[in-house]
């Protein structure tokens, strides 16, 4: 049900009743549930090893039965047992148990909504004397990371009872192998500097966890890709796979008739890490209805994008300068969920957009200056995306180069003359 005002009258046998006005306001926050970020499990109590931390998310439950993350304050009744890692209201908060905490001691974390202070809940944390056995991995809240953005790195450890959870930053020294690409501070906050890759390493501080004597068990690393500022989340192999298909009389039913309807290069060029690689879609016919498509879909378990940011592709033209009008007339972008079509952006519905990325606006690594981002704003979740290149008299394009599939796109800022 939408918010707004409705006026209701009843009529019968030529007689009309008085008007009743009904005002529907926004749904009210009824309660809060706490979700453990590690496994998306709703919890009211949890156990955390001394010297480690876990992240939790506050989710509001509303009167219309909808649920969504909310901003809340997080307050402990005993900071010597468990305490929020950082001060201030937040949707997600890491709860840290100090090394000095006593085994089996408990603390109550009160989580209160900032939009409705009368709505709160309690998360009970118990300290455990499990010992850290080794540092096993490094994870990131967001990867790839766009230039100029920040993300949080997490050091994951294995404990004596085989639990795996985040190690408190007070025990970790963070380093970036290539600070020119991305830097990291002592809290694990990563800042993207320029396009490329770097290795982020988490190492136990000297003197911390002395029971771990094997140097190989005292650190772990992960590679972080820094993406350009337009294709902010490139869909990469091996998490994704790419395939092509044909449609229409010549491309589809007649198999393309050779060079009249063809592809050059491998579909995997759209999802590999080399931005100079591209898949060419060639349509040298002008018959309406013929098309070539490239689908990028998960190869296994992959991210489901919520549909809150634009999605699209980076494309180019072998003929030289690319015109926005040509792209709009020839291309559609469709989101997919488990291989099924969800939404389509196209020129007819005025939903498709094109940002020309030519010099001096934004040359992207090895992608030529004639490249463009073609994208639309979805409204529903998806985990795959399709670009369809359509033939027709309205476009001057006979070939389209497809460089990258982008789970999220950051449009270029508008400029004024």
Automatic annotation (TrEMBL):
Residue intervals of the BIG2 domain: 134-213
Signal peptide range in chain numbering: none
Gene3D superfamilies: 2.60.40.1080
InterPro entries reported for this sequence: Big_2, Invasin/intimin_cell_adhesion
Name of the protein in its database record: BIG2 domain-containing protein
């Amino acid at each position: 049900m939408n918010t707004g005002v409705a006026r209701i009258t009843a009529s019968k046998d030529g007689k009309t009743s008085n008007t009743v006005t009904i005002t529907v306001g926004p749904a009210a926050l009824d309660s809060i549930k706490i979700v453990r970020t590690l496994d998306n499990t709703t919890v009211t109590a949890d156990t955390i090893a001394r010297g480690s931390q876990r992240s939790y998310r506050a989710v509001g439950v509303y009167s219309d039965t909808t649920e969504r993350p909310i901003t809340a304050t997080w307050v402990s009744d005993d900071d010597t047992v468990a305490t929020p890692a950082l001060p201030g209201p937040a949707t997600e908060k890491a709860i840290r148990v100090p090394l000095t905490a006593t085994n089996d001691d408990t603390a109550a974390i009160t989580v209160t909504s900032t939009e409705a202070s009368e709505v709160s809940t309690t998360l009970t944390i118990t300290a455990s004397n499990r010992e850290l056995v080794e540092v096993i991995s490094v994870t990131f809240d967001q990867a790839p990371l766009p230039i100029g953005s920040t993300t949080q790195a997490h050091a994951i450890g294995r404990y004596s009872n085989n639990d795996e959870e985040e190690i408190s930053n007070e025990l970790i020294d963070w380093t970036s192998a290539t600070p020119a690409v991305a830097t990291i501070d002592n809290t694990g906050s990563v800042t993207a500097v320029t396009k490329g890759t770097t290795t982020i390493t988490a190492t136990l501080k000297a003197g911390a966890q002395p029971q771990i004597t094997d140097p190989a068990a005292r650190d772990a690393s992960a590679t972080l890709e820094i993406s350009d500022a337009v294709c902010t989340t490139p869909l990469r192999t091996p998490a994704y796979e790419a395939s092509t298909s044909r449609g229409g009389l010549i491309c589809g039913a007649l198999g393309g008739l050779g060079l009249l309807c063809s592809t050059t290069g491998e579909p995997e060029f759209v999802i590999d890490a080399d931005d100079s690689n591209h898949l060419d879609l060639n349509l040298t016919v002008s018959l309406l209805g013929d098309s070539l498509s490239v689908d990028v879909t998960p190869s296994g378990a992959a991210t489901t994008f919520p549909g809150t940011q634009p999605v699209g592709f980076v494309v180019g033209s072998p003929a030289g300068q690319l015109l926005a009008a040509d792209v709009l007339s020839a291309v559609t972008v469709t989101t997919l969920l488990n291989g099924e079509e969800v939404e389509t952006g196209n020129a007819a519905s005025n939903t498709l957009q094109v940002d020309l990325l030519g010099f001096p606006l934004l040359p992207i690594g090895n992608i030529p200056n004639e490249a463009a981002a073609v994208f639309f704003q979805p409204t529903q979740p998806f985990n795959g995306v399709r670009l369809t290149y359509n033939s027709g008299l309205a476009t001057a394009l006979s070939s389209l180069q497809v460089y990258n599939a982008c789970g999220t796109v950051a449009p270029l800022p508008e400029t004024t003359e």
